[in-house]
Amino acid sequence: MKAYYQLDEALVALTESVTLTDDVRSQMEASVAFLHRYLQEATAPVYGVNTGFGSLQNVVISESRLSDLQENLLITHASGVGELLPRSRVKAMLWLKLLNMSKGYSAVRPILFERLATMYNDGAFPLVFEQGSLGASGDLAPLSQMVLPLIGKGLLELPGGPVLSGEQWLESKGWKPLSLGPKEALALINGTQFMLSHALEAYDLIAKIQRLLPWISALSLDAFDCRVEPFLPPIHRVRNQLGQQEVAAEILSILLQSPNAQQSKKQVQDQYSFRCIPQVHGASYDALRHCFEIWERELNAVTDNPNVFENENMVLSGGNFHGQPLALTLDYAAIALSELGSISERRIFLLVSGQRDLPPYLADDAGIDSGYMIAQYTAAALASQNKQLCTPASVDSIVSSNGQEDHVSMGANAAIKLMKVIANVEQILAIEWLCATRAATCRNLITSPDLQEELHSFVENTDLDHTKIPMHALIAAAHQWLFRSDERI
Question: Which end of the chain has fewer CB atoms at under 10 Å, N or C?
Answer without folding.
Answer: N
